[in-house]
Amino acid sequence: MTEKSKIFTSMLMGTIFLLFIAIAGLFIRVNQLQNQILVLMEYFPVDAGQNSGLSIDTNAPDFTLPNTDGKYFSLHDFLGQKILLGFSSIDCPYCKKMYPELRSFSKKSSNLQIVLISRGTLKENQELVQEQQFNFPILTLEQGNSEIGKNFQVPGTPFFYVIDEVGKICSKGFANTEEHLEELIRKCNQNSN
């Protein structure tokens, strides 16, 4: 075997080895993503027959969850005012893009109570509040507490309900821009008339 053949063989073997490593790394990452999706589905399960959330004019189910300071809030605590109730997840990339939009929207919406139910640990949600400087309640939905997502039939995140002053759902949908949030409020106002 000539010297050039040895070099070529070595390069070919090296390339095959690197490709093998890359494929193994890709397999591991896909497995991690699959596990993250399964965890999200535990909190906000998607039922093929109920993939659009609760119906308009349905009474919003009550819940009790802690905020990032450990104080417990119920939906009932906010009755008498219009509520924008959002569902998000610390691991959701769309939620991460939506947070600054929600913060900006909240500063313009003084006549609206915003409440965000965030899947994550208390510490993760405290970091979220600090990072985003939210001035509205962020309620923590920790592992093992998937009933609220099921009761609200949350099809994914970021998903929002607008709830009127008497506790009925008047608008709903996915939103990740201020314009989407404004549209949900506009639809609620139309449905209330």
From TrEMBL:
Pfam families: AhpC-TSA. The keyword Ribonucleoprotein does not apply. Keywords: Membrane, Transmembrane, Transmembrane helix. The keyword Zinc does not apply. Signal peptide: none annotated. The chain crosses the membrane at residues 7-28. Residues 54-186 form the Thioredoxin domain. GO terms for molecular function: antioxidant activity; oxidoreductase activity. It comes from the Bacteria. This is Thioredoxin domain-containing protein. It comes from Anaerolinea thermophila (strain DSM 14523 / JCM 11388 / NBRC 100420 / UNI-1).
